[in-house]
């Protein structure tokens, strides 16, 4: 998908329906364009390779929401991948809210997010990773995130949650099943402050919550999301 700013407002430039997702424009007052990612088919199953591409033009404002979330099913020895490539041009603004990304029992998922930001661009991003549905231990997940600002690395993370035995050790996630975070890239937001906040070496900050239930992570992250500019 690609969006551009013309006449003081952001408009869709290219919205393409893929194998798994269909972008839908949601109308609302203001200069930003709000787009929802509607599901086309069930995902992720073994062998699925979902790729999302987002291009926000100079000075454009995009609010991207995923009302359905993602459920990775039992891969039965196979593997699935979920990838997003985001490009923010100079002065672009984007808020991206992802609900639960659930890794069901027996699933094996590679999740990768790559973001390239030009000078003056800003991204406010929220995600929630859930290891297993109710009563499940959860499958294997490797989540790779890379954010570059003006061609230089701003944030790089390789989160390897492939082995349930290793991730459940003290100091990793223990008995927790939910890892949620709010991240600001391109500027350093004001409060709130607390031990769960990590300010980056460059312009940006991250607030993470590890919990046993999604609603408990949301209770921690909702005030941060709104304080940093999320709707």
UniProtKB/TrEMBL annotation:
Keyword Chaperone among UniProt keywords: yes
TM spans (from-to): none
Major subcellular site: cytoplasm
Compartments (UniProt record): Cytoplasm
Protein family per UniProt: Belongs to the UreD family.
Quaternary structure (record): UreD, UreF and UreG form a complex that acts as a GTP-hydrolysis-dependent molecular chaperone, activating the urease apoprotein by helping to assemble the nickel containing metallocenter of UreC. The UreE protein probably delivers the nickel.
Name under which the protein is recorded: Urease accessory protein UreD
Gene giving rise to this polypeptide: ureD
